[in-house]
Design brief:
This protein is of the alpha+beta class and 135 residues long. The protein has one domain (3-130). Helix content is 28%, strand content 28%. The protein has helices at 18-32, 38-41, 104-116, 127-132; strands spanning 3-10, 56-62, 68-75, 79-84, 90-95, 98-100.
Length: 135
């Protein structure tokens, strides 16, 4: 059973490792199709259309035994991107607060964990399914 843990507010590239810097770049590209470096995405002095990740949140998603599974980024109040831990492989996205994932098993795992962590709004069309943990 996956669990969202270790929530961090990210405001600077100095808080991140190399894989996370690339994740920030990929988050921004997924959000607005602009390929900009993490330094521009996290710069509060950059134009608003570039700094879409300023003051974002980064969560670890871990297995029951504490093994890191994913790194989940939340930004712009209703968006996010989820990567396999320590990689730049994007496995899911948050679009208008809803979870989008091509792998049904992973979607259920992440959706259930998001529901338990209070990260999926009760009004989401998939909330009841994820809250019950049934596919």
């Amino acid at each position: 059973m996956a669990e969202f843990t270790h929530r961090r507010h990210i405001t600077s590239v100095t808080q991140l490792g190399s894989a996370q810097l690339e994740q920030v770049r990929l988050c921004g590209t997924a959000y607005d199709d602009e390929d900009l470096p993490a330094e521009r995405r996290l710069n509060q002095d950059a134009p608003d259309d570039e700094a879409v990740l300023y003051a974002c949140e980064l969560w670890d998603v871990v297995a029951a035994d504490g093994t890191p599974l994913y790194e989940a980024w939340f930004y712009q109040s209703d968006s996010g991107s989820i990567f396999r831990a320590g990689t730049t492989e994007m496995v899911a996205q948050i679009i208008q607060c809803g979870l989008e994932c091509e792998d049904p098993q992973r979607e259920l795992e992440l959706g259930t964990a998001m529901t338990r962590a209070g990260l999926l709004p009760p009004g989401d069309s998939e909330y009841d399914r994820f809250a019950s943990g049934v596919s």
